[in-house]
TrEMBL record:
This is Metal-dependent hydrolase. Signal peptide: none annotated. Keywords: Hydrolase. It comes from the Bacteria. SUPFAM superfamilies: Metallo-hydrolase/oxidoreductase. One of its GO terms (molecular function) is 3'-tRNA processing endoribonuclease activity. The keyword Hydrolase applies. Residues 36-229 form the Metallo-beta-lactamase domain. InterPro entries: Metallo-B-lactamas, RibonucZ/Hydroxyglut_hydro.
Length: 262
């Protein structure tokens, strides 16, 4: 199983990165590669096209309905619907309650850009896994101002397909019980770290800091930590240093185009 970073900017695109978007890929026993797109925030459709074929996705998984995690679904719909070869078959899209209405609102209820033409929308049910080829996605509700889910994605190890590995993606969250469930025994914890210790202490229930992400990785005995969703006004090295103060395992910053092999 592999994690590919498409975009990792927090709140809106940076000059060097689109907003949140990630690919999870794995091969099945027959050698077919399965691809799940996790989130597709502002500006992410551009780099997505350099990393995979957007017309050949096997599923789309949306953590929550803020624009920096799902706005480019509207233009992904346009790409898939109006390609010269004809429309793509609809792809399954999983998201929180209200996903279909939010997509329609972003599209302006214009029949020419109606996203339901290209997406079969399903609602996450906590505790109910979703199976996509060799990958299993488990939604875990987390703490954010709107309904939000992190995802535990399990699949075959890249070097040994008989071994099951787990990627945990926080989406956007503050420290909470759901975050600890996500991080528990994860081979890789992909954690947002949009806030800074000291500066943002009065803002709770929204985002993690590098320190809180590191504490979650430590409590859960996660084997690797990748920090993401850093807004343009943050110094990424501060988030990295915060995490390293409380987490002894390997920790790094998400970088567009990076491939993390599990």
């Amino acid at each position: 199983m592999r994690l590919v970073v498409v975009g990792c900017a927090g709140s809106f695109p940076r000059a060097d990165s689109a907003a949140s978007a990630y690919l999870v890929q794995a091969e099945d026993a027959a050698g077919r590669t399965w691809t799940v797109l996790m989130d597709l925030g502002n500006g992410a459709l551009g780099p997505l096209q350099a990393l995979t074929d957007p017309t050949a996705l096997d599923a789309v998984a949306i953590s929550h309905l803020h624009a920096d995690h799902m706005a480019d679904l509207v233009v992904l719909n346009v790409l898939r619907r109006y390609r010269p070869q004809g429309p793509c078959p609809p792809v399954d899209l999983w998201g929180p309650e209200g996903t279909c209405d939010r997509l329609a609102a972003y599209a302006g209820k214009d029949p020419a850009t109606d996203p339901t033409e290209q997406f079969v929308v399903h609602t996450w049910q906590e505790g109910v896994p979703v199976v996509v080829g060799p990958l299993t996605l488990e939604p875990v509700r987390v703490e954010h101002p709107i309904p939000a889910f992190g995802l535990r994605v399990s699949g075959p190890g890249d070097d040994d397909p008989s071994r099951t590995v787990t990627l945990a993606y926080t989406g956007d969250t503050d420290a909470c019980e759901g975050l600890d469930r996500l991080a528990a025994d994860a081979d890789l914890l992909l954690a947002e770290a949009a806030y800074v210790e000291g500066r943002d202490d009065h803002l709770r229930g929204v985002h993690l800091t590098g320190r809180r992400a590191g504490e979650a990785a430590t409590r859960g005995a996660a084997r690797r930590l990748v920090l993401t969703h850093l807004p343009v006004w943050n110094d990424p090295q501060v988030a990295l240093a915060e995490a390293r103060q409380v987490y002894a395992g390997p920790v790094e910053l998400a970088v567009p185009g990076a491939v993390h092999v599990l």
